[in-house]
Design a protein that fits this description.
With 497 residues, this protein is an alpha/beta fold. Helices cover 26% and strands 15% of the residues. It has two domains: 11-386, Alkaline Phosphatase, subunit A, CATH 3.40.720; 403-495, Arylsulfatase, C-terminal domain. The protein starts with 10 loop residues before the first strand and ends in a 28-residue tail after the last helix.
Length: 497
């Protein structure tokens, strides 16, 4: 059954990738990465150039998407597995309540892993999660074979196959090698294959909400050889290294395959960067494959599309890797909206510079679906910023002035505030502060925290952070100043029930 644009409510397609940097789009000016399908979505849609993940790791980022809440409210201010997800109001739940057929394919990263979170069905592949694989986990409440749909599918085609066959850890940001099986068996292809199958199986009498959630370009860096070939001989720019970054690697942390920091041997780093970019182009082509299938089913012009990532990948910036830290490579994400049927009146080709965050996805998609937005939601709908009437007009839509981000992570626990033009960072355990003028120093090469011309702005942002942290259970402030050394928590107490 084919839908037409006259259908009262549009389908909703949310595409998320895992660990993709904000700058890895051709249309954003990246000198190496090729993303033709995402470029086309942006060229005929709207790209938000200042989109952030306020708590940039997998679990808290997904909590923001599911609930539309800030990290202070959804309670996940760091990364911690096996904390139950008991949110009453969720994006898929509200869309299901509004009459949508809801489906997730790919990564959810909730607990218990099989929680539907409001979806009618989930075809699950969270990737390699250590807490589901390690037999010494106590208690062993979920066996890995019970919480993954990709591996049983793969083993039907390749008996005995496993996620560790390549010898790459799921957090190996500096080691890469090509995928060893036919491309159609890659997890990225599987996600699209299962999503296309949903188009066949869906209820034709309802609009659908499909969350197509990819694990890549999160490690392991294992692109199909054809995609790695695109970048093997390319002149890949070296990562930026700020004047504040560690210049020596005394402990030789950079030699570890799962390092978060350090000086990595140049050949290894270049290979990892090439593989990371190759995974993104592979994703892009598979997204194009799904969009083609959506068109063949007659649904493309009746579907509102949002594309983003849960967080970025530092990829050697400042000799840092992976995510969680407050720097642009980690916290700044791509964010594209597209409406082929022009239901929402988007200003096609607009690059919007307002500060958006993952919590804004839920109210935006509910508004597009004509569904009520629960009072629990703290994000804002983005459509006014993207519309042909209002989009691009400064002050036309009331919007947030800044974003508070954070991540609990031992000695690296940090809080930051930004308006997309300036950024103030406070490391809560050491008291170290940093300030970056992003308009003139987009790569965060110079820490201007002691520069006289910026002192007024630094004092302003410090006071903003004090206000954001007032009343927090960790005791980060007394309302007048920031207090270093207070014990950070990955999960706030109000959701530990």
């Amino acid at each position: 059954m084919h839908s037409s644009q006259s259908q009262e409510r549009p389908n909703i397609l949310l595409i998320t990738v895992d660990q993709m940097r904000f700058d890895c789009l051709s249309i954003a000016g990246h000198p190496i990465v090729e993303t033709p399908n995402l470029d086309e979505l942006a060229r005929n849609g709207v790209r938000f150039s200042r989109a952030y993940s306020a708590t940039p790791t997998c679990v808290p980022a997904r909590a923001a998407i599911f609930t539309g809440q800030s990290q202070r409210t959804h309670g996940r201010v760091g990364y911690q597995d096996r904390v139950p997800w008991n949110y009453e109001r969720t994006l898929p739940g509200e869309l299901a309540r509004a009459g949508y057929h809801t489906q997730c394919v790919g990564k959810m990263h909730v607990y218990p892993a099989r929680s539907l979170m409001g979806f009618h069905n989930v075809v699950l592949h969270d990737g390699y999660l250590h807490h589901n694989r390690n037999n010494h986990s106590i208690p062993m409440r979920e066996h890995y074979d019970q919480v993954d749909d990709y591996v049983p599918w793969l083993r039907e085609r390749v008996p005995g196959a496993d996620l560790i066959d390549l010898g790459l850890d799921c957090n190996a940001s500096t080691v890469a090698r090509p995928w060893h099986l036919p491309e159609m068996l890659h997890p990225t292809n599987w996600t699209v294959t299962q999503s296309i199958d949903f188009l066949r199986r869906r209820d034709p009498g309802k609009p659908f909400f499909l969350w197509m959630s990819f694990v890549r370009p999160h490690p392991p860096f294992d692109p199909p050889q054809a995609y790695l070939d695109l970048y093997e001989e390319a002149e890949i720019p070296e990562p930026p290294v700020g004047d504040w970054a560690e210049k020596e690697d005394v402990s030789q942390a950079g030699l570890s395959p799962v390092t978060g920091r350090g000086i990595v041997p140049k050949r290894r780093l270049r290979k990892a960067m090439a593989a990371y970019y190759a995974l993104i182009t592979h994703l892009d082509h598979q997204i194009g494959r799904f969009l083609q299938a959506l068109h063949e089913y007659g649904e493309l012009n009746n579907t509102v599309i949002v594309f983003t990532s849960d967080h970025g990948e530092l990829l050697g910036d400042h000799h840092l890797f992976r995510k969680s830290l407050p720097y642009e490579g980690s916290a700044h994400v791509p964010f594209i909206v597209n409406d082929p049927g022009n239901r929402l009146g988007l200003k096609r080709g607009l690059v919007a510079d307002q500060l958006v965050e993952l919590r804004d996805i839920m109210p935006s998609l509910l508004e597009a679906a004509g569904a009520p937005v629960p009072d629990t939601v703290e994000g804002q709908s983005i459509w006014g910023l993207a519309s042909a009437e209002q989009g691009g007009k400064e002050g036309a839509v009331a919007w947030r002035s800044h974003l508070h981000g954070e991540h609990a992570q031992g000695l690296q626990s940090s809080h930051w505030v930004t308006d997309g033009k300036e950024k103030f960072i406070w490391y809560s355990q050491t008291g170290e502060e940093q300030f970056f003028d992003l308009e003139h120093d987009s790569e965060e090469l110079h820490n201007a925290i002691r520069d006289e011309p910026y002192q007024e702005r630094i004092n302003h942002w410090r006071s903003v952070l004090v206000r954001e942290l007032e009343g927090r259970e960790e005791g980060y402030t007394d309302g007048r100043k920031l207090i270093a050394g207070r014990q950070p928590k990955a999960v706030l107490s109000h959701i530990r029930v």
